[in-house]
Design a protein that fits this description.
Elements: H1 11-16, E1 24-27, E2 30-33, H2 35-46, H3 61-75, H4 79-88, H5 102-125, H6 130-148, H7 150-172, H8 189-204, H9 207-210, H10 217-226, H11 230-235, H12 239-249, H13 254-272
Antiparallel strand pairs: 1-2
Length: about 280
């Protein structure tokens, strides 16, 4: 669907996924929403044994429980709230990188505010999906309040730091840190979640707050190592992609482009990050 045109809120898409959220996968008559569930579905139904499973079945129950624990722990962080909140409170941020430079940050913040009004208007235009759209508008308003409140945003950053502290503790427990990933020597779905989070924080300019300059040496080494993976380089959008973003920004498409970037990284991780 075309996010830049708001197709996720059109009736035909709401009939498929009443929550009006992307990504969503349709396989025959089955509808699978949410990136994490999509990754699990693809692995459970289309894995042909060519690659190791993202949640290992041959490493014992302790490793499997650890993978699930860290995946859930990391995925509970509302990355979109952290992202937009950093636009409203630049004093907490260091030096943002592409694509989150000043023009994009301003446009995304403005678009987030307009989205609430648009959802309410769409609710009146689509009586069959009115309740869903109004609920999304209400959720968006609550998120907006969280973003613009400095105290709430600072508390959110504290929660992120608590999660990263637990990650650091796990990484520091490894006897061979250069040969092991977060939960074991195999790159798992927990590593995908962690890689996506760390890269988002890095692009926002928050690495100095959370791990660089020796604050969390285990995470610092981990992130440097994961960025050298060929799969990481192939998954993360290129400079040319960001140049395209700037061009499209002039046409008002940057919001959808940046959102699409995030989704591409999440789903692309299933295909690429699992590879060496």
């Amino acid at each position: 669907i075309n996010i830049t045109k708001g197709e996720q809120y059109q009736s035909w898409f709401l009939d498929i996924n009443p929550k009006g959220e992307v990504p969503v996968l349709k396989d025959g008559m089955k509808i699978i929403p949410d990136s994490a569930r999509i990754i699990d579905y693809l692995e459970d139904n289309f894995s042909n044994g060519e690659y190791q499973r993202l949640i290992p079945l041959d490493k014992g129950s302790d490793v499997r429980k650890k993978v699930i624990h860290f995946r859930q722990l990391i995925d509970q962080i509302p990355a979109n709230v952290v992202t937009l909140g950093s636009f409203y409170h630049p004093k907490f941020v260091g030096k943002p990188k592409l694509p989150f430079i000043t023009p994009v940050r301003k446009l995304l913040a403005s678009g987030e505010e307009k989205n609430i009004t648009n959802l309410k208007s769409l609710a009146e235009m689509n009586p069959n999906h009115r309740d869903v759209l109004l609920e999304k508008a209400e959720v968006s308003e609550k998120k907006h309040q969280l973003m613009v409140s400095e105290k709430s945003f600072e508390n959110l950053l504290y929660q992120v730091d608590k999660v990263l502290h637990e990650v650091e503790k796990e990484l520091s427990s490894k006897t061979q840190m250069d040969e092991s990933w977060l939960c074991c020597e195999q790159f798992t779905v927990a590593d995908i979640s962690l890689t996506i989070l760390l890269n988002r924080l890095y692009l926002l300019g928050l690495e100095n707050r959370f791990w660089s300059d020796g604050k969390k040496p285990g995470i610092e080494r981990y992130f440097a190592r994961v960025r050298q993976r060929d799969s990481f380089k192939r998954t993360i959008p290129s400079q040319m992609f960001h140049l395209k973003t700037f061009i499209e920004m002039q046409s008002g498409f940057v919001i959808g482009t940046v959102i699409f970037t995030a989704l591409a990284v999440i789903i692309g991780s299933f295909i690429l990050l699992r590879k060496k």
